[in-house]
Each structure stands twice: as C-alpha cells, then as structure tokens.
Design a protein that fits this description.
Blueprint: H1 2-11, H2 22-25, H3 37-61, E1 65-72, H4 78-85, E2 94-98, H5 104-107, H6 113-116, E3 125-129, H7 138-141, H8 162-181, E4 184-192, H9 195-207, H10 217-223, H11 226-240, E5 247-251, H12 255-272, H13 282-297
Parallel strand pairs: 1-3, 1-4, 2-3, 4-5
Length: 300
C-alpha cells in the first residue's frame, strides 16, 4: 500500500515546465479507491510519529532547514492541516508565519523582505500560512495594490504588464534557488478546493455560532474573483514549480486526505535527507565513560 500511496503522491507534483490546467490535471476530491478514511487517519498518525523522530535528527544533524509553504483559496483547510500534521513536533523547532496585508514598514522594503525574516535556521522547520506567493496572486487579481509598493517602474496600473509578472516569477525562483543551495528544503502545497465545497464551508461558518468568528465578508468578496484566482494559481504553478522547489497540488475537498498527503510528502522528503546524529569521537566516548563511571559511584 505504501508504494502505491507514494506513487500517487508523485502524481500531485507539478513537473517543471508544465502548463497547468487545474480543471484538467487535478481533482479537488479523493476518489476513495486507495484506502478508507479510518485507514488513512492511521497512516497519518504513524507518519506523524516518524516525522517527530526525524525532526530530532534534523536538529542534531544541523545542516538542513525545512520551509513548508501552504497556499489556497479561503476555507481550504490550511490552519487545520498545520494543526494536525505538525501536532507531534517539538514546538521549539517549528515556527508558523501568517502573512496578512503588508504594513507600512514592510512596504518600505522589497516584497520578499518580510518573508526572508521568517525563514528557518538550520535544524528548524518554518511553515508559511500564505507566503511570498501572495505577491503574484492577490496583486495579480488586484493590481492596484502594487501601487502601495512604490515601485519605480510602476506609476499606474497600466504599467503592470506580462513582462512585469514574468520578472516577478523569476525573482521568486531565484530567491528559492538561493535558499535550497544553502541547505533549505522547500515544500510547496496548493490545497485545491472546489468552489462548491468552499460555499458549503462558508455556510457552515455562518450557520454555526461557534464558527462565526472564522467568517469574514472579505472572504465572500474575494469569492467573486474565483475564476481570476484560479487562473493566477495556474500561472504561478506553471512558472514556479522547479526541481529544487516543486509544487504539490493536493485535493482539498476531503480534509483528512489533504492532511494525509501533506504528511506523506513531508515524511518522504525527510527520509530522503538521510539524516543522522553526529558521530562521537573516541575522545568524547572516553569522556562519556568517565562521566558514567562518576555518576554510578555517587552515593545515594
């Protein structure tokens, strides 16, 4: 079952240079053929335990860091995925950053600056709940926001053309290439939610008093731009899925399956790193034995 599952995970990876069509190439729901929800949840639980063990090795190995990027339409389940998949990790080695509308201070720097500040150190895991990709998503649907960045070449919305976006995709690819060449493993997930399922989840938030706080009228307004966002996602997936930082398009209509896919990719990538604990020198072993002997001789 594991090999079949890993082969399936590989089909979710956007191959570099692929012209992505979300409707043609990727499903939003799980077909239920591989295993049941109960079986999937057990696989995820086992995977979380293994990821926790490997996190300890990641810290001790001290050569790599891991950046997990989550992008999605509203209500796709990013928060729940973070909560469930990362539940077994040591919180001291994990930080989650959520990027909202940039502040005045952030706008006085280049658009990657605020993201660079939150990158993981060696041995750490960082999760971006929304990320630097908002700069080719929200700004693409609402190009007027770019005027706030005070870019020298953008004096009006009319100046935001195809060449501008091509340049920004290249900037992001260079940014990620530099990170990976210096030991950061980048895993990028797009949670592919259907418009029908988003509607269902929005209504659930409105009808359930305990979930009212999750609903925002801004989310409902952005839903009006659904097709524009889908097109923006297709282009960024096509332009920025690279061998060193691939995108995975995950079915998001079934939350448990989305979480299982994220866990599977993270565990697989951790295993590929061949992490190990630092070797102890002969001199250090002698010191350990001496310390052990001294401790055993202590009087109770």
């Amino acid at each position: 079952m594991k090999s079949k599952y890993l082969k399936y995970i590989d089909t979710l990876k956007v191959k570099p240079g692929t012209a992505v069509s979300l409707k043609k190439h990727y499903n939003t729901n799980y077909d239920g053929k591989m295993f049941t929800k109960a079986e999937g949840e057990q696989i995820l639980a086992d995977g979380i335990r293994n990821i926790a063990k490997l996190q300890d090795k990641l810290y001790a190995h001290d050569k790599y860091s891991v950046l997990i990027v989550l992008q999605a339409m509203d209500a796709a389940g990013k928060d729940g995925a973070i909560k469930h998949v990362m539940s077994g990790l040591n919180p001291q080695g994990v930080k989650v950053s959520s990027f909202k509308t940039p502040s005045k201070d952030e706008l006085d720097h280049d658009y990657l600056w605020r993201h660079a500040k939150e990158l993981p150190a060696r041995g750490e895991i960082a999760i971006f709940n929304r990320s630097h990709y908002e700069n080719v998503l929200v700004t693409k649907v609402h190009p007027e926001f770019l005027l706030n960045e005070k870019l020298p070449e953008i004096q009006s919305v009319k100046a935001v053309n195809k060449q501008f976006w091509e340049k920004r995709y290249k900037q992001i690819n260079r940014f990620e290439k530099n990170l990976t060449e210096n030991g950061t493993i980048i895993l990028k997930f797009f949670l592919h939610l259907s418009k029908e399922e988003q509607k269902k989840r929005f209504l659930d938030r409105i009808n359930d008093p305990t979930k009212n706080w999750k609903f925002s009228m801004a989310d409902a307004e952005e839903r009006k731009h659904w097709d524009e966002y889908q097109q923006a996602y297709e282009e960024l997936l096509s332009k920025t899925s690279t061998p060193h930082a691939p995108w995975f398009v995950l079915p998001a209509d079934d939350k448990w399956f989305t979480r299982l896919c994220i866990g599977g990719v993270v565990l697989s990538e951790f295993e590929n790193l061949k992490l190990s604990y630092p070797a102890v020198s002969p001199e250090q072993k002698l010191q350990l034995m001496a310390a052990k002997s001294a401790l055993l001789k202590e009087k109770k």
